[in-house]
Structure formats: structure tokens, C-alpha cells
Amino acid sequence: MKFRILALEALLMVGANGYAQQLTLKADNIDQIVKALTLEEKAHLLVGGRTPANNIIGAAGATQAIPRLGIPSIILTDGPAGVRISPTHKGDSRTYYATGFPVGTALACTWNPELVENVGKAIGEEVLEYGCDVLLAPGMNIQRTPLCGRNFEYYSEDPIVAGTMAAAYVKGVQSNGVGTSIKHFVANSQETNRTEVDEVISQRALREIYLKGFELAVKEANPWTVMSSYNRLNGVWTQSSQPLLTTILRDEWGYKGAVMTDWTGGRTSYDRIIAGNDLLEPGYNEQEQDLIDNVKNGKLSMDIVDTRVKTMLGLIVKSPRFKGYKYSGTPDLKAHAALTRQTSTEGMVLLENRDQTLPLKDVKRVSLFGVTSYNFIAGGTGSGDVNKAYVVDLKSGLTNAGLTIDNDLQALYESYKDFNERVRKVNGRWVRTDELRVSRQAIERQAASNDLAIFTIGRQAGEGRDRTIDNDFNLTNDERDMLNDICNAFHAQGKRVVVILNMGNVIETASWKAMPDAVLMAWQPGQEGGNSVADILTGKQNPSGKLTMTFPIMVSDVPAVNNFPIGNSFRSSNEKGRRNIDYTLHEEGIYVGYRYFSTFNKPVSYSFGYGLSYTTFAYSKPIVKASKNGFDANIAVKNTGGVAGKETVQLYVSAPKGTLDRPTKELKAFAKTHVLQPGESQTLQFHVDTYSLASFNEQASAWQAEKGKYEVEFDASIADIRATASYTNPKAFAQQVNDVLKPDRSISDIKP
Ligand code: BGC
Q1: Which end of the chain is more exposed for a tag (fewer CB within 10 A), N or C?
Q2: Domain boundary among 544, 566, 589
Q3: Confidence category of residue 415, pLDDT binned at 50, 70, 90
């Protein structure tokens, strides 16, 4: 009762004219508003809204309004590849189709943060003009194995790439005055049993691999929000982990924004608020009651509630909805379509190109094989999907580029029974793509009457489920047989075969990559995908994408696969303690991706950083100079080939021998040229600070970099060393951090 009277008093302020004025939220009166809020209202602000607010249908979530204090509900929308809302809204004649941009993996493979920032700008404009406030993106978990169902949303197996790309994306989106939510914090690298699984990870691997990218994005781009993940970490749900959400994120990294939970139901609320979440999504009445009860019984202090409420109000006052922005419903979709077309070509990776098969020469008539050629997969499923107005499939892209697609073959594919169901998602879930087995005779007829064969192999994946090894990572028998028959028939006629990979993730390539003449990894390239592929095939664009992950020979070569749920083995069950379902041991420690393959000398199919171009580049002698807090480097890159193109230079560092085992070398920086004309050079600059040279010593709970000589490489890929230099660190570096997030059991990490 007393509380309510106080709140009422605070509600009325006396204005200059002597009349009482109503208190409403302003950017500079948050403390006053907090005093005016009742406990029930505070709980309301910390728990997500349950009905679609402000007519934005299909948005993933919202905060709850408190109209009496002028606090609006703000809208949270997925997701990484573009705004995900319903394209039509009842009673509204406008449509809300959003641009489907390339998936995260494709963006990262551009190695071009400037371009990714431009994509962010465009997506942010759609967030703003479609009436939303915060974009639930980017996804930036580490691609620990090729089998995670959500890898397509993520950037890389390497935290420097993931963090740099996420920072660029966040800056771009937020330049529109709307927010982002970097997700899923942290270690959400498997989908099987994702809301329960306990990821058991050493402190070192956490600091160096899983937290590093988030640290970079937080420090560089200051995202408005961070999304705490579904999974457990070392015995505790990340959402309930104060060491993670407060000690590391806020105290160590200085994060000032809001933390919201991933869309979890059925968990207690107050411990998650204590841990450091400011907003519980998607929000339930019981959660509000739980907060109120626990304040009343003293388990949750009002101080913590007020801190979280202030953070929420700080988020709300920045939002377009609070500022009364009148969204137009008409973002520049035309410009964004052009941007997605260009971006996706830059993320595509040319894996094979024997005898300069590409760009195509003297090719007019094309036999287009593969169900996904006709129903191109533009993006992944689940919250990473976008409701796009259209998708340019490969058939249309090639036709637009002036090539003629064989009609009979097209008719055969389009009459394929259940054609659409074979390649489309079903209720947002992953579905298998069944390849059409074209007869050998029909393929031979094709080879006789056309100039070239293109065979697209497609894969789809998404939330809630991991990939299988058979029929997903590995080719299906039908795909293998088709590839064999196509190559035999076309090669017998002296004609070539190009394979297009249309997927968001790594597949097996070693057993078949020598058969076709060219292989292009097109990823899931967004709504203009068919045009983008055609731009590369015809040479309108020179490919400059490089892999941000390793393609192993066999999936079992990836050490983390020993500790990963294989074969969708997850079944809901009362049984607990199931390895790789209820808990997953990260026995590979820091040896994730290339850190394993290069250190343990294990051959791969395609290396981290690999990708071909239609031109060639020469690297000059590099210069490495000590700077105030590390070193600066530069190297000139010259286009020595016949066509214009871009090159990415990757800077790797090998540390001197010290107390800790270390990867042979680690990526510390990268830079990409602008389009270099034949004969043109550009000098690329790099900076590496001492902190980023450091490894994490668990015994000392400290980042440490040895004094002494560091070898510095300038590579075209991790396996293609072009120039070397060295840097001498004049004195040992150490930075102590909190001794938190210890595994709750011992893990036998692999050692080189
Ligand atoms: C996903 C998040 C997404 C949220 C809202 C969750 O299931 O894990 O990435 O942002 O749903 O749609």
C-alpha cells in the first residue's frame, strides 16, 4: 500500500506553470521513472510481451508497454539473413517482404567487413522501415564441427573472423538507430537437445575460442543487446550464469547494453535476472509472478531489479518506437536486391577450376541437373529464414545471363513428383532433398545436344536438429551416381561439367572433387542467388571468396566429431546423463578447425582461407614494425593476371615456445584489397596488439604473451604461405582475469 502511494506521488510532477504534469519516460529521467514504477510494472518490463504488439505480425518478440508512464512496447525481430516478419498483415494493404541476404557463412567468406557492414546497413533500414526496433542477429557461434544444424547462420570456425564480421554487421545495422542482439552467448554449437545440453569446456578453450569473438564484437561495436543461449555451460545454464553474464560480459568487457534470454520456456525467472539477464523471452505470466514473489521473499533484491529495469529503459529510449518514428513500410528493396546480388558473389568460393573451365567460354546451351537448380535454396530454415518476395533460381539466373537451358531436362525436373516438397522446408524444419535420378541414356542425350553440364547439389538445415553424416555431410548414392554419369557422358563428348554447391555448410568433397571440371561453393546466397552464380560463371564477377572453415577429408577427421551427437540420435526421454545429448565434452580444447589440422599435420580437402580467383596475385616483401602496443604490418599485393580481381591476405602468427602448448599458427588479422586491375597494386595495413598475441593460462587465470620472436606470415590461405617476417615482443605480457567458468568435471584435452 505504502509503495503504491509513493508511486502515485512520483507520477505527478509540478510543472513551471504550477499545474501537475504527468510523468512520462524521457531519455534523461530514467531514475525518476524507476522510482515511479510498481513492483508489478518492473516485473512486466523484465518479461517479454506475449501478443503481437504494434501490428508487427510475425516478429519473434516484444517488450511490454507501461502506457501510464509513456513506456512503449518495442519489437524484436529475427534474424541474421534479413528481417523475419509476416509478409502480409491483416487490415494493411502494404506488404512486408524483406530482402533475403546471403546466410552468415556466405557473408563471412567475403572476408570483407566493409561489405558486411553495408549489408548490416541495408538490413537495419528494413528493421526501421518495417516498424521493428531490435534485430535478433547476428548469430556468431563457433562452427565447432561441420554437423551443427545452424552453422549456416554462423560465420566461422575462427573467433577473429566471427568477431570481426559480427562487429561489422552490428555497426551497419545500428547505424540506422535500431538495435542488434549478438547471439547465442555462448557455446551453442550443437542443436541436438539444445535447451538442455551441458557443454563441458576448459576455461582456456572458452576464453580463446568461444568467448573471443563475442569479446571482440562487444568491444568494437557495442551491440544494443546480447542474447544468452539455451544450453548449459560447465554445469550451469548460460542464462543462469552470473560469471558469464556479469563477471565476464559486464565487469571484464565493460558491456553496458541489455541481455535477453533466448526463447526459453519453463525455467525459473529470478535466478536468471540475478545472473545478468534484463529481459526474459518470449515471456510468461508465471515468470512475472516468480519475480514478484522472489522480491517479496527476499531472494531477489530490489537493487538488482532496478538495475535491470534501468538497462531496459535505456534500451527503450534509444528505439525508433520510443522516438515516435513513423515507419514507411517501403525500404529501398531495389537497392538491397542489388546489394545482395553483389555480396553473395563475393562470398562464393571457387573450389576447383581445371583448365580454366570458368569463366565460361563458347557455351550457349546448358544441361542443368539437380533439383535445387530449379528451386534454389536461398537461405536456411527456422529463425534464420526470411519471408522474401522472390528467389532467383539458377535456371532463371543463367537464362538472364543469356544462356539457354535445355527444355526437356527442365521439364523432367519440373514434373518430378512432389517437387516443391522435396526442397522446401516443412513447418520450418529441415527436410531432405531427394535427388532425381536421371537415366544414363537421358544424360547421354543431354551430352550430345548441349555444350556444358551444370549439376547443383543442395542441402538444407536449421534450428533444433543437427546434420547427419550419411546423406547429408556425405553425398547420397543418387548424387554420386548422377555425378558419375554426368561426368562420363559429357567428358566422352569433350564437354565440361561444373558442380554448384547450394548449402549453408561444409560437405564431403575429397572423394569426388576431381571428377567435375569446376566446383563453386555458392552457399545459400539469398534471394538473388541464381543471378549471383551466373555472374561468377560468366565472368561478370571474379570470385574472391575464401573459406572461413576447413573442409575435412572425412567428417571423422574433425576431432570434435568424437564428442558430437551423430545421426540425430536425440529422443526426448526421462533418461539423463547421455553423452553428447545431455552433456558434450570439448576434448579437442582449443584445437578447433584449422588449429587442429595445421598443428597435428592432418591433411584436409580444402584448407581454411582457401579460394580460387580468375586472376593471380603477387605479394611484396612485408614490413613489420613494433608499435605502441604490439606491431603494425603492411604488404603490397599486385594483380599479376589478366582480369580485375580482389585478394584477401591472412596474417598468421606463430608464438615462441612457452609454457603452454599452442597451435602451430593462428590467424590474428586479415585485409582485402579493392578491385585491382591487371598490373595494379595496393598496400594492405594490419595491426596486431599484444593482448591478441596472448594465450590463456588457466593456472594463472591470465592472458599471457611470451617475450621473444613471433613469426608472422602473410598467406593466401593457411596452406599457401606467400611472405614471412617476424616481430620481437620486447617484454612478457600478462593480464589477470577472474577465475570463473571452471568445468564441473575433468576433460582429457588433446595435446599436440
Ligand atoms: C532461436 C533464436 C531466435 C529466437 C526468436 C530461438 O529459438 O534460437 O536464434 O532469435 O528463437 O525467434
Answers
A1: N
A2: 544
A3: confident
Classified as helix, coil or strand, 172 is helix
**Per-residue cell: 752:** 599436440
Q: Using an 8 Å Cβ cutoff, are 595 and 666 in contact?
A: yes
> From the CB of 141, is ligand 1 less than 6 Å away?
no
**Are 526 and 395 within one domain?**
yes
**pTM (2 d.p.):** 0.96
Chain Cα centroid distance, residue 622: 32
Nearest 5°: the CA angle 547, 607, 156 is 40
Q: Is residue 235 part of a domain?
A: yes
pLDDT of residue 429: 44
262 among known catalytic residues: yes
**What residue's CA is closest to ligand 1, atom 8?**
262
- Centre of ligand 1 to C-alpha 75, Å, is 14
Positive or negative torsion for Cα 14, 18, 21, 26: negative
In this structure, are 294 and 351 located in the same domain? no
Rounded distance between C-alpha atoms, residue 124 and residue 122, angstroms: 5
Bridge partners of 682, per DSSP, are 637
- Helix, strand, or coil here: 411? helix
Summarize pLDDT for 618-672 with one digit per residue, the tens.
Answer: 999 999 999 999 999 999 999 999 999 999 999 999 999 999 999 999 999 999 9
For the chain, how many structural domains are there in total?
4
